[in-house]
Amino acid sequence: MANSTSSSDLHIRRRHALSLLGSVAGGFMLAGVVIPFDATARAAEQKAITITDELGREITLQAPIKAVYTDLWYQTEIVRAIGAADAIVSIDQTSNPDKTAANKEYFAKFAGLPDAGNFNSPNWETIAASGAEVFFTRRNAPWQDAVEKLKPFGIEVVVVSTWDPKVLRAQLPNLGKIFGAEKGAAELAALYDDIDKILAERLKGVEPKKVFFENNADFVTSLPGSGWHDTIVLGGGTNIFGDIAIANTGSASVHTYTVDPVEIINRNPDVIIHNGVDGQASGYEPWDQELLAEQAGRVIDRPGWNSIKAVQDKNVFVINNFFFSALGKQIGALAVAKWLHPEHFEDVDVDTYFARWLKAQGVEPRPVADYAYKLDG
After folding, report:
1. What is the distance between the alpha carbons of residues 331 and 106, in angstroms, rounded to a whole number?
2. Model-level pTM?
């Protein structure tokens, strides 16, 4: 009975908040909007649970939730992978199949859902009107704004940075509880742990190799606090700019930090991994391998870079983030390990693990080779 009252109260609060917002000059104009919220049906199935998100915030909500807004395609992937895709009622532009040709097939299920636009400044009106019970977001998103804007509607904000491998693994049990998808969450955790076990066993006592990771632009790297850095370390590498620390790991600077190109040469990486190709959006649809090869050529043709060990040894990789960030970048970590230490991973087929991930997404498997290129490889 308590759950029913709670759900009914939430419905009333949303109606009241929407009417207030619609009447305030400069506020959200939601006249005539119908909130898709069936309080009675939900109350019969839900019960209050309390979870602690990655920021240590205790959140009490009615579970299993039936409606969620996912604020980036990483978040959308994880919700779908645990078997809760039907709970997604609103998305950001990166999960909209009509806005990213490379994901038209991959995210086809979400075509027509309310699109709140850019994840850094979402349309709060769209989210509120969608009937979402939870705003599922990351630490590098405007989550504080979300708490302030969505509280009047009873929409809880849950912060789980699904691009961060360690955070994702730690939070998978919570996600299972929130969505009533414990089995799917456990299966995803098993995939993560299978990779983790291989990495631990094969890299024990192995000397890390120096890696320069370049993120989508010339001389832009990623630092500790970003999933990119963790992926390099998990894969048996050392980030050559891992000595640069930024206290606020929610800052965009940990993901995109510009460095002096001369310093890259001086630090002489064993391996270079470049994420992205100019003008191309990452997605399930592979890029033309010629585009990847051309990007590799642009990297090695920079003045003075012929003195870098990675260039001399042709250990230069260009990647499509679609595969690299799969499962909180854990698939990427396994690929990095195979690239950095091939003698220890010769019998490990990354495609096998990537196929398990794509199966959880409900799409046909594709090889990692569709999404990565090795110089002259």
Report:
1. 18
2. 0.89
